[in-house]
Amino acid sequence: MQLRLLCVGDVVGQPGRQVLAEQLHRVVKEHEVDCVIVNAENAAGGSGLNPTIYRKLHTYGVNLVTLGDHIYRKREIVEVLENADDIVRPANLTPQASGREFALFSTQKGPQVAVISLLGRMFMPVPSDNPFVAVDRVLNRLHNQTSVIVVDVHAEATSEKIAMGRYLDGRVSAVFGTHTHVTTADETVLPRGTAYITDVGMTGPHDSVLGRNTERVLKNLTTQMPSTFSIATGDVRINGLLVTVDSNTGLAVSAERLCVKAGETRHAAYNSDDGRAGVPRM
Predict the structure, then answer these.
(1) Residue 225 within a domain
(2) C-beta separation of 115 from 88 below 8 A
(3) How much is the pLDDT for 263?
(4) In whole angstroms, what is the distance from residue 226 CA to residue 30 CA?
(5) Within a 10 A sphere around the Cβ of 225, how many other Cβ atoms?
(6) 215 is a domain residue
(7) Which of 172-176, 232-236, 269-273 has the lowest mean pLDDT?
């Protein structure tokens, strides 16, 4: 049996939430998606997640939620992390940190999908343990529960994400990178069967600097004077990775980028098999 998974990149503020509300149900139907995994660590005002927005994500069609270095920016999310079974913290935080190391979603077809979140350690502001050791520990716990496992690597350094993809190749269904908000064009199925992309990109306003108002960011960078970064509003898109998985083996059959603009009525996945990144397969 094959499952279709959609891994969605960092949702930024109200524009990111709005495009999910507008487009996600249609994307799921059009591409026959069985499970939607969303990184929501920037969903509340551009930094963190709160309980109200967490609940709204599910009404949009989100099944599993991952977070990153802003996980505890909104203190009220701690209660959700301690009680909900569909949201995860990075598994390589200290064991005393609130939240689950993995979450499971039962698809309508039957097989369960597991998600794990990891924090990178290079150039990242939050101290964390070794992500390679942490993911091995969690995979051991998942050994008899499901073969369909997705890992969100929330990291700054491309080398660290690529290394994790190679480390997990053949052991998980997909590894997708988040945090940098810029989509990379290296989506692929690695040699042993793991779908991979270095960064799935941002779900939010792309007429911006990583989702923030361009003028505010430029003022800060050119004058070195403090400037409050507000969320931008233009050119809002969903960026994601569509992965087809054989549920019996847990290995990926295909990996395709997906970019959906606010207001669009038709969607196209971007197929890496034809060798031309960014060419839509209609």
Answers:
(1) no
(2) yes
(3) 87
(4) 45
(5) 7
(6) no
(7) 269-273
Q: Is the pLDDT of residue 271 over 80?
A: no
How far, CA to CA in Å, does 92 sit from each of 61, 79, 197? Answer: 28, 20, 21
Structure tokens, 161: 């994400």
CA dist 228 → 168, 176, 216, 218, 255 (Å): 39, 30, 7, 11, 38
% residues pLDDT > 90 (the chain):
90
pLDDT tens digit sequence for 219-253: 999 999 988 889 999 999 999 999 999 999 999 99
Assess if residue 101 is contained within a domain.
yes
Query: Where in the sequence is the domain holding 58, given as residue range(s)?
Result: 2-205+234-281
- Which H helix or E strand runs over 52? helix 51-60
**Residue 52 Cα to chain centre, angstroms:** 20
Among 70, 179, 181, 206, the one annotated catalytic: 70
CB of 170 closer than 8 Å to CB of 147: no
Mean pLDDT computed over every residue of the chain: 93
Question: Domain for residue 199, yes or no?
Answer: yes
Q: What is the pLDDT of residue 6?
A: 98
Report the CATH number at residue 15.
Answer: 3.60.21.10
Q: Is 112 exposed, middle or buried (0-12, 13-18, 19+ CB in 10 A)?
A: middle
- How many domains does the structure of the chain reveal? 1
| HSE-up (13 A, CA, CB side) for residue 251 | 10
Task: Enter the pTM of the model.
Answer: 0.92
Active site residue 70: yes
